[in-house]
Amino acid sequence: MLAKEIRFHGRGGQGAVLAARMLASACAVEGKYVASFPMFGFERRGMPVVAFTRFDDQPIREKTQVYAPDALVVIDPTLLGIRALFDGLKPEGILVLNSPRPLVEAPHPSVHKAAVINATAVALCEIGRDVPNTCLLGALARATGWVSLDSVLAGLAEHLEGDMLKKNIRNAERGYHEVEVLTW
Amino acid sequence: MAKATPNVLAVTGNEAVAEAMRQIDPDVVCAYPITPQTEIVQLYAQLVADGKVSTEFVTAESEHSAMSAAIGAAAAGARTMTATSSQGFALMWELLYIASSYRLPIVMTVVNRALSGPINIHCDHSDSIGGRDSGWIQIYGENHQQAYDNCLQAVRIAEHPDVRLPVMHMYDGYVISGAIGPLTPLEDSRVREFIGPYQPVNPLLDVQHPVTVGPFDGLHGWYFEHKVAQNLAMERAYQVLQDVADEFARLTGRQYGLIDPYRLEDAEIAIVVVGSTAGTTRLVVDQLRAKGVKAGMVRVRVFRPFPYHTFAQALQHVKVVGVLDRADSFGAQGGPVFLEIRAALYDNDPRPQVLPFIYGLGGRDIFPHDIEQAFGVLDEAAKRVRRVSTQRRYLNLRQGRGLEHERK
Prior knowledge:
The complex is a heterodimer. Chain A has one domain (about 5-185): Pyruvate-ferredoxin oxidoreductase, PFOR, domain III (Pyruvate-ferredoxin Oxidoreductase, domain 3, 3-Layer(aba) Sandwich), CATH 3.40.920. In chain A, about 35% of the residues lie in helices and about 25% in strands. Chain A has 5 helices and 7 strands. In chain A, helix 1 (about 15-30) crosses helix 4 (about 150-155), helix 3 runs antiparallel to helix 4 (about 150-155) and helix 3 (about 135-145) packs across helix 5 (about 160-180). The radius of gyration of chain A is 15 Å and the shape is globular. In chain A, about 50% of the residues are buried. Chain B is an alpha/beta fold. Chain B has 2 domains: about 1-250, Rossmann fold (3-Layer(aba) Sandwich); about 260-405, 3-Layer(aba) Sandwich (Rossmann fold). Helices cover about 40% and strands about 15% of the residues of chain B. Chain B contains 14 helices and 16 strands. Chain B has helices at about 15-25, 40-50, 65-75, 85-90, 95-100, 125-130, 145-160, 190-195, 225-250, 275-290, 310-315, 335-345, 370-385, 400-405, and strands spanning about 1-5, 10, 30, 55-60, 80-85, 105-110, 135-140, 165-170, 180-185, 260, 270-275, 295-300, 300-305, 320-325, 355-360, 395. Chains A and B meet through helix 1 and strand 2 of A and strand 1, strand 9 and helix 10 of B.
């Protein structure tokens, strides 16, 4: 059973939708079947944004939104306060979190493993703007092992080019190497 | 556009169609952006700006104008394409009839979205279903690949001398249009070869052979005969749709028909469905089959002309048919597809039961267990001696006081 579903939570402008697509591209590089889509709605800077990625070794026929994700990627730490954030997360779930503070305990009973990194600080250093999405993709690759770092970097190249690609590759690499992984 | 394996791209449905349009490289594209079709117009405008296509791109101030310009371009003799959704489709309304009655082979992508109100940007089929009587051929795709494949085939069907009718091809807004999915495109040269050059009939720009397009028909003119001719063209389109699909299959290995049956051969109960929900339905059919339930499915690929004869044959042996409509015809016996299927099966002997289901209006999500529930209704009905009620059954409908009030 290779099928996995990942839900991204961010705010408009942080690249949640693009991160979901780049993860799909990364999985596609490995020959997996992929689907990725935003929560169908409006897009505005600062608004909470939700996006999804599915991958499988079989063709994906289900077309519903993702309601029971295997992992959450939380791009904006202020979203931790949203009650619905953990809705449907499978037991043994994985949380990939952008936060300046370490987690001291599991933020929800379903969270079995958490990968925490101050991705905003990394992005400000590497890119010069608060776009922590690609850093978290590197962290996701490390914490889950579902996709290799090489594939993540190849996935970035499908969406970015030139200087932005180089900066985001460093962003993702640092996410992979510097993330702190906790299990409960 | 993301490259997956060498021949498979990971793209949105809209990117898939923009890619097909790039390869077709029509003479004229006139379009006005509307959610969730916008990406097509944006991507195509970029292709034009970058000089990647030779198309004359006409921006318009509304969909009414976009279709008017498309009609003008097609009448002049240009291979013409456009795209729209929802309210934009509705605004094109009167022009849809003009395009088909002038027998102009315009190809239009319709990304399915609900009609207001309340204002809703999500998927259902109310927009294109509303255009079913406008004289356009209507083809529905299930996924990214079909959106691309149907777009290419639409050009050949529209321009075929036996048909010469505009063609609209549809796929589900957001679910396909905005979602990343797999696409195996053809090489540019093979598309060009498949599409071939366009030979317009009686083009306005052929000044050596002047013609008049769209005049008043006179007080005792030939309007009636024109309408009969349009219907005859629709009847000839069945064969052309299949011939073009067969030729496409020889090119790609992907075989399409007028309908798309799944595990139907020995089915006792079956669901008829349009669009992306066919994917979820296949999943449920497999699950039910594993439990020993003889369940099957047919996807409606071509809605106009409606392949009633093909449906009657394909569903010959089925005891109870459930039709899943993602649009309603208020005050009718059921949804629009239900009405077609029920009429198509009327002469079958024995005559199966046909039950109407409504789902997914305004983008309400549809889950495997909703479809399982529909199959449950069919299974119950198949075991009964007497026929069950044909009142609408709603899938994943919320219960609320307002609705209860209306029902009193």
